[in-house]
Amino acid sequence: MLIHGYVPQNFGHSIIIPLMKDRRADALQLANYRGIFLSPVFPKLFVVCLSSTFGIFLTRYNLQFGFKKNSGCASAIFVAQQVIQHFNKNGSTVYLSALDASKAFDRVDHNMLVNKLVSCGTPWCFIWIIKNWNTKLNAC
After folding, report:
1. Angle, helix 41-54 to helix 124-139, in steps of 10 degrees
2. Rounded distance, CA 63 to CA 70, Å?
3. pTM for the full model?
4. CB-based contacts of 5: which residues, under 8 Å, 6+ apart?
């Protein structure tokens, strides 16, 4: 796949199983369900291999918490708490604004993203895998 930059048509297709969030809630309301993806093992293994080989091209900023090894939501919350405690301890008022960026990646201009990857020196074989895999996922 890396040599040709090609992702097979059904590669990574998953089955979505709806699970109720709360069994006491109304079973007829869609908001009471969350989807669980059952995915084949091979695509997961392939993603791990891609991540270990090309992950260095995807992490650029120390202040980035998401999509970064050994980091995530808990790290971001810890940093926010430390900053708030620091300023409160020193007598300052702290204002916090939060933004729900769910589905944010769906709104990213993918051509700009590819250009950014190219400017970072990301190998073309990896860029083509990302582009082709994303195109197949959006076609489903």
Report:
1. 150
2. 13
3. 0.56
4. 124, 125, 127, 128, 129, 131, 132
Q: Quickly count: other Cβ atoms within 10 Å of residue 129's Cβ.
A: 20
The model's pLDDT over 101-118, given as tens digits with 9 standing for 90+, comes to 766 767 778 888 889 889
Residue 54's closest CA among 42, 65, 64, 67? 67
For residue 136, the model assigns a pLDDT of 54
What per-residue confidence (pLDDT) applies to 140? 46
Do 108 and 100 contact (CB within 8 A), yes or no?
A: no
> In this predicted model, what pLDDT tens digit does every residue of 72-84 receive, in sequence order?
788 888 988 999 9
User: Which long-range contacts link 60-65 to residues 24+ away (Cβ below 8 Å)?
Assistant: 60/120
**What does the domain layout of the chain look like in residue ranges?**
15-139
Q: Average of pLDDT values for 25-50?
A: 88
| Residue 91 Rama label (left phi>0; alpha psi -120 to 50; beta) | left
Angle at 17 between CA 13 and CA 23, to 5 degrees: 165
How far are the Cα atoms of 7, 13, 14, 52 from residue 110, in angstroms, in the given order? 17, 21, 23, 23
Rg of the chain taking only CA atoms, in angstroms: 20
